Amino acid sequence: MASLKGQTAMITGASMGIGEAIAMALAKEGVRLTLVSRSKDKLEDVRNKIAAQYPDIKVGVYPVDVQNAAEVDKAVETAISEVGAIDILINNLSCFIIEENKRKKRFWELPIELISQMNGTNVSGVMYTTHSVLNRSMWAQKEGTIINISSVTGLECPPFDGEAVYHANKAGLEAFSNSLRIETAGSNIRVLVLRPGCVATNFHLQRVKYDKNAMDEFFYGYEPLVAQDLADSVLYMLSRPGRTSIKALDCVPTAQRGLTRFDREWNERNKQ
Ligand SMILES: NC(=O)c1ccc[n+]([C@@H]2O[C@H](COP(=O)([O-])OP(=O)(O)OC[C@H]3O[C@@H](n4cnc5c(N)ncnc54)[C@H](OP(=O)(O)O)[C@@H]3O)[C@@H](O)[C@H]2O)c1
């Protein structure tokens, strides 16, 4: 297992959920961190948690909306000068906005601003971050690992209304990753994809419009993943020797047998 100690990582969407868990896991391995999301206060909370457990780890926080390319580039420049050249980029953030009413709107019923915000965050924002990190760090070093957090829905769409933009964004991320892997030939840069199945985070609450009952119904009868499971997957991918690229890894709950086939007897069968 290759040691990660002393490397510097940039993690987007690090203010909560999977991104926060990845930050904690990398800090434990001795990785310096640069954390990105829009909420300064939440990023500072994560930095404080890391400082309490791993006081020797340097952590910089960079509140930015990744839809703004100039601000992203400025954040990357500042992160490199404050913390160090970036060896690891985890493109983890995403936004999944649902309109404020009970019925999920189909694609053509969505306001254009919502479509633009999701495309701007999940596609352009990821590209802006990657563009800046490659130009300012990885391509000069000819070294680094980029992990794009996609989804099992990047390959196949579930049959739910109101989700066309998100699933198209994830399919785009798959294509971007495959092309970038080819374009970075001539370097030691690895471009990898991690595809989560259902993980219990704020993401799903947002997806069901913060309706706790709908969330409970979605997770009924089985154990979803927790953010730590994805952090463990990231550690596994990062710690392979340089000759090895785990190009893509699907990490799903065992009870998620297919995109929409959940073993709802899981809890009953596996109760302690
Ligand atoms: N949870 C699941 O079941 C699941 C399943 C499949 C794939 N995934 C993928 O896993 C990744 C992490 O998901 P999660 O469940 O941890 O999500 P989450 O809890 O909703 O966190 C999303 C993160 O993205 C940040 N963010 C959103 N818009 C942003 C913007 N415009 N600029 C900067 N930061 C922004 C948020 O921070 P701020 O609000 O502070 O900006 C937050 O830190 C995502 O790519 C998601 O698509 C999750």
Architecture blueprint of SSEs:
Blueprint: E1 8-12, H1 17-28, E2 32-37, H2 40-53, E3 59-63, H3 69-82, E4 88-91, H4 112-141, E5 143-149, H5 164-183, E6 188-196, H6 202-207, H7 212-218, H8 227-238, E7 248-251, H9 266-269
3D architecture notes:
With 272 residues, this protein is of the alpha/beta class. It is built from nine helices and seven strands. It has helices at residues 17-28, 40-53, 69-82, 112-141, 164-183, 202-207, 212-218, 227-238, 266-269; strands spanning 8-12, 32-37, 59-63, 88-91, 143-149, 188-196, 248-251. It has a seven-stranded parallel beta sheet, sandwiched between helices. α4 (112-141) links the parallel β4 (88-91) and β5 (143-149). α1 packs parallel to α2 and α1 packs across α8. Bound molecules: NADP nicotinamide-adenine-dinucleotide phosphate (NAP).
